[in-house]
Amino acid sequence: MVKKNIDSEALYKEVARLMADRKQCVALTGAGVSAESGIPTFRSKGGLWEKYDPIEFASIEAFRKDPSKYWSLRGEFIKDYDRYQPNKAHLALAELEHVGIVRCVITQNIDGLHKKAGSKNVIEIHGNLMEIICLVCGKGYKAPHIPDGMPPHCSCGGILKPNTVLFGEELPVGVFMKAKEESASCRIMLLVGTSAIVQPAASLPYLAKQNGAKIIEINIEKAFPEADYFIIEKAGTALPRIVAEVNKFSHE
Ligand code: APR
Fold first, then answer.
1. What's the sign of the alpha-carbon dihedral 243, 120, 204, 125?
2. Which residues pair with 232 in a beta bridge?
């Protein structure tokens, strides 16, 4: 199999043709898809984990010891909910779902931007930062409407925690099971803006490939060497270009 890595008209056409023909496309996205919305990635240059130790700030053990640390990292983002908006990449994926090519978005992101962009079938395997739950009574809050305080407390007095999967926590079984089913049965996986190294999400493209899917990677650098196609480009540039090519096929 010859791997394609040229950023060219021909590459976009070929990828769009493949997607239009095969359909049953699942997107697995990571922080890179939200980078153009102004949200820092984790491991790229200037990424969050360059400045903060993930185990100190985002592990369940650290949260239990001192929840205000996690809140100091994430609280501003949660309160400034409207500042972050979907970018062209999120919108393009929603459009590809709308035209029946992408059937599901599996995301590692906790920013909720795929849903905000209009994608309907979204599996947020690491949870959603905007859903806040009380660790004592289970009461739910929705950002940005959460009590003040560092850390914020529920009306019952319990500590509030965003409904996200922290390091050291298991992914919710049903959610990851669904992601596995989607990955094993898709015919194309779009791998967008992820370093594809954090487990168990990193196992999903392998699962897709073992079951016959073609992998199209869209990233500013190659992160998944086993991909069949590489589009080395910003997601906000590449995905709208794919939509434009796909639309041409439907008008042929
Ligand atoms: N367009 C496409 N790709 C981009 C862009 C962009 N504009 N900007 C950056 N990237 C790519 C980077 O090259 C990198 O491969 O996005 C990827 C981001 O990788 P990570 O920062 O490792 O993010 P992610 O893969 O989502 O991390 C997985 O790690 O810390 C945990 O829970 C966190 O969900 C996260 C998980």
1. positive
2. 219
**Which residues have CB under 6 Å of ligand 1?**
30-32, 35-36, 41-44, 47, 54, 108, 126, 193-195, 198, 219-221, 223, 234-235
Could you give all domains of the chain from N- to C-terminal order, each with its CATH number?
1-38+86-126+171-252 (3.40.50.1220), 40-83+129-164 (3.30.1600.10)
Those residues whose C-beta lies under 8 Å from the C-beta of residue 141, and which sit 6 or more positions away, are 131, 132, 133, 134, 147, 154, 160
Non-local (6+) Cβ contacts of 203 within 8 A are none
Token couple for 63: 């949260």
Query: 152-186 as b/e, with b when 16 or more CB fall inside 10 Å?
Result: bbbeeeebbbbbbbbeeeebeeebbebbbebbebb
| Tokens read off for 102 | 């992408």
Q: Over the chain (252 residues), what is each successive 10-residue block's mean pLDDT?
A: 61 95 96 94 84 86 92 83 92 97 97 97 96 94 88 94 93 95 98 95 98 97 96 97 90 62
194 CA to middle of ligand 1, Å?
4
Long-range CB contacts for residues 117-120, cutoff 8 Å, separation at least 24: 117/86, 117/90, 117/91, 117/93, 118/91, 118/94, 119/90, 119/93, 119/94
Q: How far is the CA of 143 from the centre of ligand 1 (A)?
A: 24
Burial of 81 (0-12, 13-18, 19+ CB in 10 A): middle
